[in-house]
Write a structure and sequence with these properties.
about 0% strand, mainly alpha
Length: about 120
């Protein structure tokens, strides 16, 4: 089923995509491939999902990546992201800050993302 923008709003499909993404991210993290794990976690977020638990499940995937990435690694990983991934990552940073998830680390990541992608990443 599609909405007026041509976006698929089928939550079952979104759920399946999130579960597949989680499996792929876990596999990448098990191999210590933190960069590709974060890239995969940020791909195609379920923005059009109606169920909040689907969006939360995807946020947990991003969180699982962040918990594996050290402060010394995050800058070089951010530098590998394209602008779309930076914009998506910025949205998750605000999501995590709203929930008081390691705010000092989120502020550092916010500064690095702003440096890489510019102020537009905050409002896009």
């Amino acid at each position: 089923m599609e909405d007026g923008d041509g976006k698929n709003d089928n939550d079952a499909q979104f759920q399946a995509e999130v579960q597949q993404r989680e499996s792929e991210v876990r596999s990448l993290l098990a191999r210590k491939d933190k960069t590709n794990a974060l890239v995969k976690a940020l791909e195609n977020p379920p923005l059009w999902a109606k169920a909040s638990q689907i969006k939360e499940a995807n946020a947990k995937i991003v969180e699982s990546c962040l918990s594996q990435i050290s402060d010394t690694e995050i800058g070089s990983i951010i530098n590998t992201l394209d602008n779309e991934a930076c914009d998506t990552f910025m949205k998750y940073i605000y999501y995590f800050m709203e929930r008081n998830f390691n705010n000092s680390s989120m502020l550092k990541i916010h500064a690095l993302l702003t440096e890489k992608a510019g102020l537009g990443s905050i409002v896009r």
